């Protein structure tokens, strides 16, 4: 078990390096980072200005454009080669310094600290909704396989899967916030509890389609498990049907769901971009959209890295969860 | 009534005219066709037959374990109560407490994700309301009773950490936890090593006797039934073809299928390299069975009348019954065999060697 953990941790670090390196390179090679910081000033022929062969067109007399460019070069290490810059960036990262935004000179770490909690809470709540709905739904559908409830639920789940996030979000917003006014329509409240409450609709918007896909997987796996001898044995032991479903059949049937749970975290982050827009949640999803449009690469890089990190860590936890689900994994 | 019940106690389990049909894409499979038998308290009934003979389906019907698609008719009475009605009503603490079952394959009949101790304790907690710690302690004691070494260590192990033989002992311990009066053992030793089979069978036999339990032992091996069963019922193509007390069945059998089964078992007194007599042909399809004796195509006694209608099981439940028009060991049977040998072929088209089988 210890060896397994060490192996997974090494892999985690390797993945993080790969993701940050790719992200960093992409941001540096696709477009000129200097241009993103100082705009058209990046095109200036500063050597020519210094030599006097080109006219200095600086508007600001106190600080010439060339000085600004030089400062930017120094600050973002743009005078060094990309691999060196990457190493410098990583060592800054190690000390918790994510750099500063090109847009407003705000430290990126501060942006992340402000926006991340909203998104994380949204993601966690969405997964709670999805599992909370999918598990009982899948269990009942499998228990009554091919009967009325199961047939109805098959239709319902395909319906949910085929509705895009934004459509579902808008419909839920209209019904529950505007028409019946059960939930607030805007993300604002004095209290943490109030904020959590206004997070319910967005979480349901993200979680319901996931619940539908989890339910399909769980239902199929459960139907297979229910053919197993140990389920017959449990019935021969005289245990009641629902106890058999939850205590015997559910756990060995969770593998597909848990795997997709890990993978879907990525899709969920994508979905949160849209949902944060619809419900006006000031989260990381909205932030990255803005940052990408403005080529604000320290912010983009930081968020990409965070997303990758979350993804890898969740899948690491999923791996650990497998060994809880099935003790046979532990000895492998 | 009162007088009758004194002279003849009511059977613990009574099965009357049991039919089980499964609708499939190829047609309706008639898995069990009119099976009737009685089992008295403290006795062991062996149900013997090839795979596909309906013996496991019969067992599952008794335990209400068939899929919903199965059509069941007939009567199953346990201690005067209608078992199928009890099951339909969801009666608690019947299965697992009154009657329970041990399955063929110990590798799959334990839940792979639960510790064996928990799996045994679970029954005790649910049916007998034991506390968790009491139940685990009792589970350990049960493991000891079924001859598992180091039971205190085993309770907290997972099934995959145990060998097949040990697992089947765990299954037996699990089945016996609530002191059932009736145990149905469905080929309990088929999937374990030959070296372990006898130990397990002897263990079951000993536990059964110690507890005064009744048992239905389902097997394809008449050798397993020998010496352990009080009564034997031989099944073929979903029907009982011969039932009798064990002694009569082994030494004075009437049905050619029973005889053929016995001949196909190797015996210790046989000379070395003695050739076994396999039963020719294969078990019949259970979809649209012909209106004839199902064993006729494989039977060396088969005459024309065997192909004309299904022979009825003779006699009363509890007596020596057999479903054969030309029973072995009778004049009619000998005459049929002699005629077939002379012709070199039976009425159903099976060609016969000229010499007597088993002498080669």
Architecture overview:
The complex is a heterodimer of chains A (332) and B (360). By secondary structure, chain A is an all-alpha fold. Chain A has 2 domains: 15-97, no CATH class; 109-331, MetI-like (MetI-like fold, Orthogonal Bundle). Chain A is 75% helix and 0% strand. Chain A is built from 16 helices and no strands. Chain A is elongated, with a radius of gyration of 26 Å. The model of chain A has no long low-confidence stretch (mean pLDDT 84). Chain B has 2 domains: 1-98 and 180-284, P-loop containing nucleotide triphosphate hydrolases (Rossmann fold); 106-179, no CATH class. Helices cover 31% and strands 19% of the residues of chain B. Chain B contains 12 helices and 11 strands. In chain B, helix 4 (116-128) packs parallel to helix 7, helix 5 (132-145) crosses helix 7 and helix 7 packs parallel to helix 8. Classes of the chains: A mainly alpha (332), B alpha/beta (360). Chains A and B meet through helix 11, helix 12 and helix 16 of A and helix 4 and helix 7 of B.
